[in-house]
Amino acid sequence: MFGSIAARYDLANHLLSCGIDFYWRKRAAEIVANWQPKNIVDLATGTGDLALALQKKLPDTEIMAVDFLPEMLELAKRKGLRQTMVADAMKLPFADSSFDCATVAFGLRNMEDWGGALREMSRVLKPNGHVLVLEFSLPTMSILRTLYRFYLHRCLPMLGSFLTKQKHAYDYLGDSIEEFPSGNAMTDLIAKSGFGLTTAEPLTGGIVTIYTASCSQAMSS
After folding, report:
1. Alpha helices, DSSP H only, in 65-113?
2. DSSP for 105-133?
3. pLDDT tens readout for residues 169-201
4. 200, 211 in Cβ contact below 8 A?
5. What is the CA radius of gyration of the chain?
């Protein structure tokens, strides 16, 4: 499904978010930069937008961008991403304690086992490493939540179909956002997956949330 929309994926993302997605990734990169990681693995990197934001913010940091779709990674490389790898985020081909930081933007929601994916991230992180998850969420304010759901299920599929000719991908998007845990439910899932010091930072009224955590608890258990 994602391979079928790769060619127009970036255009659709930027238009359907009214360009706010640039700010979301910039904010995520700022958070990661404060951790001063020497190396980062960016999972479900897609066309590499978060990895590129990290690369711009941390030019001396080694960033490995991972995705299971070669079509997406080819576009990421054309945009200037230095290191890419075709791999399954559920079964990463890296040794334990390989990275200082793991990131995933709008990709954890699409993985078959959210907790399993988080545990795999903790496995490849060094002691005291960090994880950052940037993901869609549902606003807590009832009026905004209602408007957002209308956009997700009525407007988004039509606009997405017009831009990519793949309406089913955007029907799936709305449904997957509804099903994915957000807020406290997501921080609880991260904590149960072995992480500590979990935080949630809602952005744009709670349409997306940045979750961060430390793997120090996971490594000591």
Report:
1. 70-78
2. ES-GGGSS-HHHHHHHHHHHEEEEEEEEE
3. 555 677 888 899 999 999 999 999 989 999 999
4. yes
5. 17
